[in-house]
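Priority: medium. Attachment 1 of 2:
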């Protein structure tokens, strides 16, 4: 799995995911900071990244519009801010939740991450 982290996520999350075997890069690292959400989802699809975000309001709509128009995307993982913290203490929980869905087929899907018992 390759993840493109929305720009609200710190590089430390990408590093932690990478150390655990998940290829991850931030939007900022790819020079995509400030891009519209629609363009960010398109860039993720173009480069084969699953988009990782907490922005369910925009990305649920954009992903649905993409599919309705006959397009495709690589998938969207949603880590709701009410469930997961972006702060350093929350990185382990996010990484565990990502690993829990890493073997699933995510293309054209929007998946809400859940906490995993460790």
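Attachment 2 of 2:
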């Amino acid at each position: 799995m390759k993840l493109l982290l929305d720009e609200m996520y710190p590089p430390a999350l990408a590093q932690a995911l990478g150390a655990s075997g998940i290829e991850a890069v931030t939007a900022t690292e790819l020079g995509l900071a400030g891009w519209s959400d629609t363009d960010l989802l398109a860039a993720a699809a173009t480069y084969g990244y699953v988009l990782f975000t907490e922005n369910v309001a925009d990305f649920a709509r954009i992903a649905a519009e993409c599919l309705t128009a006959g397009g495709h995307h690589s998938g969207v993982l949603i880590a709701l801010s009410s469930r997961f913290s972006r702060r350093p203490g929350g990185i382990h929980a996010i990484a565990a939740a990502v690993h829990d869905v890493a073997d699933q087929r995510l293309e054209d899907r929007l998946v809400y991450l859940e906490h995993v018992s460790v």
